[in-house]
User: Fold this.
Amino acid sequence: MKLKTLLLGACSAVVLCGFANAETLTIATVNNGDMIRMQKLTDDFTSKNPDIQLEWVTLEENVLRQRVTTDIATKGGQYDVLTIGTYEVPIWAKQGWLLPLDNLGADYDVDDLLPAIRSGLTGDDGKLYAAPFYGESSMVMYRKDLFEKAGLTMPDAPTWEFIADAARKITDKNSEIYGICLRGKAGWGENMAFLTATANAFGARWFDENWKPQFDQPEWKNALDFYVKLMNDAGPPGASSNGFNENLALFQTGKCGMWIDATVAASFVTNPKESTVADKVGFALAPDTGLGKRGNWLWAWNLAIPAGTQKQAAAEKFVAWATGKEYLNLVAEKEGWANVPPGTRTSLYENPEYQKAAPFAKMTLDSINAADPKNPAVKPVPYVGVQFVAIPEFQGLGTAVGQQFSAALAGQVSVDQALQSAQQLAEREMTKAGYIK
Amino acid sequence: MARNVSTQRKIVVTVAAWAIGILIFFPILWTFLTSFKTEAQAIASPPLFLGFDWTLENYHEVQERSDYFKHFMNSVVISIGSTLLGLIIAIPSAWAMAFSPTPKTKDVLMWMLSTKMMPPVGVLVPMYLIFRNTGLLDTRLGLVIILTLINLPIIIWMLYTYFKEIPGEILEAARMDGASLAKEIIYVLTPMAIPGIASTVLLNIILAWNEAFWTLNLTASKAAPLTAFIASYSSPEGLFYAKLSAASTMAIAPILILGWFSQKQLVRGLTFGAVK
Assistant:
């Protein structure tokens, strides 16, 4: 009896210790479909790792960025795993705020990651500082029925000239059909993501090799002039306040002939539950102007481990689980191949089942491969990033310049005035930050 | 004739009042209606007002995804806690300034208000460091303290205004009867200022409930109130308007109901002393 009691006691003590030792990882993430799906599938992780519990902090992207930045800059240590964008990774890695991901396990297969995405997440020391959860580029989504009606055929790799011509032909303002919907809402991640990528195709760049702002160069004038004129002729009314969501709503309700935006939108616009044009959408590469660069960007949401965490080993296990090959199979098994987070692994695009389930797969892969974050523009640049410049000053500067360009689209200022203001803003900011004298 | 004008005036005023009321209430009504639509109906063009298939799917999904009750309890504790703590500090302060003013009282009042003039993000990093070093990050206690500090100037100003309306002679009479300072404040001043205190309490609960800068920045998961609950449904890349509306409706419903039931008290308190 005594022995039994002792054994029982010992067992309970072990169980209690087990509970006491269970580590809780706090994971900060953004609110988008793929992340929400991951939260729903965490039982798979916790059943494989019973000693690790997960606590989710899901936030809107901009709120998350502010909160996570404050925490990591002050070494607050509130989070063990962070969801951060391609913009933050090189800057934070340089600051020593992120731990290198050296121990993701033998079967993680880091070489399977898409090279374009991986290069944006690798530090100067050649180490990976964040693991991509999903990747995206931008491409043209167009209405096949409207193109047919107008007697047009979309090439796989269109030029801007063709896009503009087609947009004007399709536009029928009386029926509220607009040839093209593009971002106009001010913000470094809104209109400037689109315009910076577009400017690359027009031969423009943010800075020359000596960090001198280039808004006074003819390439920027061509790009912005083209964009404003096209939107005035063939864009929806009030385009200067349209961002991703507004354009998505317009496209899904059948009001846009074309929409150039993130590849992740493909799964929304082809979903018959959400889109009225689901069966009429075609895809093409982002347009170029024949100068050798396409106007498509490169972005990934990644999982990273902050240097201040006390639970590195558990965090590494989680990152390896969420960004590993097995996770893709898990999503496919539970939710179907079309819902697998795209744009991170070569093996996914070689999978015939995925190719069958996701008609936009090839276009997404081609778009991602066409982007080069280390050589984004036609001319040489001193920065990394296709639709952004990976320096800490870019968030503020990008938004300020975005406001000027948004005002030009709204007709409040001329293209020349907007570019002049952008040049002044950039010169002032870059001088203040010590890049130029 | 005069009666006619008066009726006309009444009609105009009533219509104008209803129009303004509906205009102000419309966004809330729209959020409420959207919460019962599907995501596709939520972005339909032209917008659907009432003629759609009502669904509870969004509420179901929000409930499944988030722990509403945890966020709700955090909001309750934080807003009531900060208001009570604020009152404990503000009643004696307002008493001192209303009944025992010095030449510098006005300056002190203005200085207090001046703390509201700086954008909060200006002190985010120092506050964050203080919270980190004192272990107050992501705790209800930390939020109670910060919201008390934020709302204290408003509480003191409101109470000061109400206390000024109370004749000092009554307090003097209490003192003559031998009441101590504490008794004077608790048994004489406070009961007389109840309408004012009640409206101050209500207004501060509403302000604390809706405060979305500090409550978002100083919490992670444990102490996150309903503001964080709403923020988790907003997304710049993806249309989740119906779900966001359901989360918003759930977050504002408690405070809306509280405001509805206490509106008489609130209006009485806010207009207290307006007519002399």
